[in-house]
Fold Chitobiase/beta-hexosaminidase C-terminal domain-containing protein.
Amino acid sequence: MSDKDNFDIDDELARSLERLVEEETNVAKAAYSEDKIKAEDIKKEPENINLGATQMVDKDKVKSLTSAIKLNDEQDIKTVDDTSDFTIDVPYVGNASKNTTSIKPVKIEDDENDWDEDENLDESKTVQKINKMNSDNPVTMSNQTSPEDGKNKKELDKKSKLIIAGACGIAALVVIIIIVIAVNMNSKNKKSYKYNLEKGTQYYNTQDYDNAVTYLTKAYNTNDGKKNADMMYELADALVHVNQNDKAIEVLKSALSYDKMNEKALPLLAKLYQDEKKGTELSELIKKYKGTKNEALLSDYKVDEPTSSENPGSFEDSVEINLMASDGCTIYYTTDGSEPTTKSSKYSSAIKIEKDDVTVKAIAVNSIGVASDVAEFKYSISLKAPDAPVLNPSESDVKVGTKIVIEGLADDEKAYYTLNGSTPSANSSQYSGGITLDKAGNYVVSVIVINKHNLSSPVTRVSYNVSEEKTYTKDEAESILMKRLVSNNKVSQSGTMVGGGGTAKLVYQNTTTISGTKMYYIRLDVNSGNSTKTEGYYGVGVNNGQCYVITDNNGSLSAVQY
């Protein structure tokens, strides 16, 4: 039944009351006018000055009856079951010691069949109910005979008629009060938490969400409504079905403020935040329930933390890290230890960590603004200076034109040197491919290496005694080579091949330049009986007297020191 139907019933009851009052008033007027009472008769009987339908009721007693109307709107309207008697005193007419009119107790029950809002009340039914109440609660009068004898019978009849009229008025007033109380109780019952909860739940269970919203909202707006999280969930769900998501969100927040761990309200609120693209609110909700038993209810809405390409730890060199997140997410990060937000640096390329201790904190934020938990990566960078350079050759006696080479120099490292023993710096001569000693004399070669972090190695110093270049003859070259073959256990002191037998013989080929060095090109033969076998090819530097092993690769000769 709609609220309009409820108002129609109340209006119909009001009209029925008006007709009842009119009828009772007419009865009283008829009884009174049948035989008018003279003014002087009334003056003779001062006891009767209060006679009359509207004057016979004690105001305080009427107040006590009508006070039942003033019920608290916030409380449930319960069935009135007080069956205690109440009596309305009618003033005595005549000289009798007492004349009272007693009204039998009336029990008012919230009869579902009588007052159900779904019943279509009409005027005839309302009157029937009122008549039934009158018949069930008759007004009885107990009159004592006046002690004064000899009174005129006609005067007594007039007084009796007045009493009857007054009693009828009282009865009408009592019935009116009872009906007003019943109507008021019925009206207030429709505003009560219990009534609206039951009606709203009934409509919700039958998926009549429009009516469910109407009644559950009324229940929600009571004090008790703010203490029923399950009812608030039903109201929110009904609001969602009628496309009132914003109101549903507010109701669910109220439900969770009363019952924080409600397992129905929480996931529905998360879903609404996602549907309405309220990412910030959803992030806060996820954070609020982190570590609680209900954290799993929000797992579908969480965003995974970013990951790093480099595991946190200690490094001796700078490191570059790449941050990664789920598809569609944007990464925001900090490197100063502060908590990242969407106002922090937006990740777009590798982050370079070059020195000291650095903590990278990052969050991933999806398309609606839901942020992940903070991912934290700690890197400790202890930069290492280059090792002291190694020079080759390391012998102190060299010939003019000797080239000094630094071994193991990295591509991102630079070397600087001096030839007088002073400590080199970045302002000294820069090394490039070698240091050539092109004049005779004594040199102290000092070298440092500086890496990409501008850290310098220890200084390496080597003294060189550079002499003028000598030219060796072919015979001297063959003698130098034979001595080297003997020292390397290739040929015995007697001139035979070690381990294989046969006599070793050196055969000069020519003088040529191989691998940048001018040398004598010499073949080693082995004579055994009547046969001769070539064992290999060697070279001796014309100017440096150094021995070499020569390899022929399809006509291309190469030499390696021997």
Notes: Residues 1-8, 34-59, 61-127, 137-146 have pLDDT under 50 and may be disordered.
